[in-house]
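Supplementary Methods. Inverse-folding protocol.

Structures were first reduced to a discrete structure-token string of length 155. This string, shown here, constituted the complete conditioning input.
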């Protein structure tokens, strides 16, 4: 008997921007179940972006997220006696998830004093196509390009 397909999770829109994508981002940002703290950090970062640019902070965030999305990733597969990295295209949902996690991780590694400020600056850098998140995305793409010869071993 075949297994049933998993139901796609429906995210409720957030209270301020009324966007389910923001809720997904906040869920990734959240630590130890403290969603209110995660919302406060995200909304604070959006306010900081509003101060920097008169354009809508949500549009800047979405554009920055789009700039960070990787299109391929490498997966290890054991062939013979060695592991080889096989480039695999990423589905559109996973692209968004990976971009969010990459943005949050790189923001937390920054040297500024509050997470709100770190996140705002990382989003701003992603919007302008610079910074650590863009470097990491390009590094993922370089690894996939270097292992292009193994792409016919797809899973």
């Amino acid at each position: 008997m075949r297994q049933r397909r998993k139901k796609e999770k429906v995210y409720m829109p957030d209270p301020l921007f009324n966007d389910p994508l923001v809720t997904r981002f906040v869920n990734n940002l959240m630590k130890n179940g403290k969603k209110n703290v995660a919302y406060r950090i995200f909304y604070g970062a959006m306010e900081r972006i509003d101060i920097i640019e008169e354009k809508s902070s949500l549009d800047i965030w979405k554009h920055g997220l789009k700039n960070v999305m990787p299109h391929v990733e490498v997966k290890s597969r054991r062939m013979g006696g060695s592991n080889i990295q096989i480039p695999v295209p990423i589905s559109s949902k996973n692209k968004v998830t990976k971009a969010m996690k990459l943005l949050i991780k790189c923001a937390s590694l920054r040297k500024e004093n509050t997470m709100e400020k770190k996140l705002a600056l990382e989003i701003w850098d992603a919007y302008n196509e610079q910074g650590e998140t863009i470097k990491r995305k390009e590094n993922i793409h370089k690894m996939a390009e270097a292992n292009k010869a193994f792409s016919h071993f797809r899973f």
